[in-house]
Write a structure and sequence with these properties.
6 helices, globular, single chain, alpha+beta
């Protein structure tokens, strides 16, 4: 039994997340954001950005990891200003937390 191979296989079997965002949808329905499971290295990138500003790092999560159904980035560095200054922080936080697999404020309040 090779533990590291089992651990790697487990991670490889994790599915792409499908995050419904009704607030950012249109007449065809909610926006669907796709996100691959994050590695420890991915999370480290976010935590490094969090040192610059914890909440601002949530915008980086969307820039780096939010994808469309074809796997293309939904946001770029050019969207950073809008994400930080012109987007509902509650919605952005909800999406980023789902991507990061962190509980939302609402989930924490229920406990």
């Amino acid at each position: 039994m090779d533990i590291i191979e089992n651990a790697k296989q487990h991670f490889q079997q994790k599915e792409t997340k499908h995050i419904e965002v009704p607030e950012w949808g249109d007449e065809n329905g909610p926006l669907i954001i796709y996100a691959e499971p994050l590695t420890l290295n991915d999370k480290q990138r976010v935590y490094k950005k969090a040192k610059e500003g914890e909440l601002l790092s949530l915008a980086w999560v969307l820039i780096w990891f939010a994808r469309d159904k074809n796997g293309e980035n939904l946001f770029t560095i050019e969207h950073k200003h809008a994400l930080i200054h012109a987007v509902d922080p509650a919605v952005l936080s909800k999406i980023a937390n789902e991507i990061m697999e962190a509980p939302t404020v609402e989930e924490l309040e229920k406990k």
